[in-house]
Amino acid sequence: MSDLGHVLVLAGGLSYEREVSLRSGRRVSEVLRALGIDVETRDTDSSLVPSVLADPPDAVFVTLHGGAGEDGAIRSVLELLDVPYVGAGPDACRVAFDKPTAKAVVRSVGLRTPESVTLPKETFHDLGASAVLARIVDSLGLPLFVKPARGGSALGASMVATAEDLPAAMVGCFAYGDTALIEKYVEGVEVAVSVIDLGDGPVALPAVEIVPDKGVYDYAARYTAGHTEFFAPARLSPEVAAACAEMAVTAHTALGLRDISRTDLIVDAGGHPHFLEVNVAPGMTETSLLPMAAEAAGRDLGTLCRSLLEQAATRSADHPAG
User: Fold this and answer.
1) CATH number belonging to domain 116-184
2) Active-site choice (17, 183, 209, 310)
3) How far is CA 193 from CA 87, 114, 264, 293, in A?
4) What Pfam families does this protein map onto (predicted)?
5) Which of the following is catalytic: 288, 307, 310, 316?
6) Is 295 a catalytic residue?
7) 153 among known catalytic residues
8) What number is the average pLDDT over the span 36-42?
9) What is the DSSP letter of 149?
10) Bond prior to 282 in cis (omega within 30° of 0)
11) For strand 6-10 and strand 38-42, is the pairing parallel, antiparallel, or unpaired?
C-alpha cells in the first residue's frame, strides 16, 4: 500500500487530443489502482475547482494532452489551488509547448534541430501564399515537414515531397492551429526518448524506435494497434543510443522541465540525432511510447507513476508555494 491518501488523475479536456487523453488517464488510473491507491479520475469542467477545494488530493497526475494540459494553464490553476502535481511548472510548459520556442532554446545549448520557418496564418495570407511558399521551398529545399507550432499527436502534420503539395499541407496545418512550423525534412530513424527524474536528476529511459507501416507516424499510426511497429530498445548502436539519451536529458534540463518528459528525435544516416519536439505530458495509452520505454528499462508503470506522485507530494510539503 502507498502512503498517498488519494490522488487525482486529470484526463479529457477540450483539445483535439481529448480521446487520447481519456485513454491515457484510464491507463494511469488502472495501474495505480492495481497498487491499492485510491484514485479519482476527473475531467476539466466547472466542477473541478469546487471538488478540489472540498477534498484536496495528495497529488495530481496530469494526463491532459494539447491545449491546457501542456501549455501551463491547468498547472497554473493547480498552483492557485495549492495542489501538488507531477510534471513541469507553468512557465516551462509554455516554453516547451511552443515548438519554435523550444527549438530555439535547445539550439542555444548546442543541440541539432532541423532548419525551419515559423509562419502565422495571417502572414501566410497577407503576403500572398504562393510567393511566401515559393521562398520557403527555395530556402529550405524539399522534402519538408509541416506541423502546427503548438499541439501534438501529429494532428495537422504532414510530409511535403513536392512544391505542389505544400499549399494543401499548410491548409491542413492551419485547421489545427494559427501558426505553422515548416521544417526541413530529415530522413532517418524516428525515435522517442523518455526522461524521468525521481529525485537523483533526469535519466533517459531506453529509446523507442518507431516504424509506421505507411511510413508516416500520423494520428492513426500512433493510436491504432498494429499500424506501427515499435522496437524498445531502439535498434541503435550503443554510441548513437547514448547520443540520443544525452540529447533528451539536455533538452529536458535546458527547457526547465521536471519529473517526466519525452523527446522526439530523428537519427540521420550518419548516426546524428536531430531534436524535433518535447512533450511535457507524454501519452500513457496502450500504444504510447513512455510505457514501452519503462517496460524496456524493467520498470513497472504503476510503480513509476506512484513514485512520481509521492515525489510531487513531498515537494509540495517541502515548498508549499509550489
Assistant:
1) 3.30.1490.20
2) 17
3) 16, 18, 6, 8
4) Dala_Dala_lig_C, Dala_Dala_lig_N
5) 288
6) no
7) yes
8) 97
9) S
10) no
11) parallel
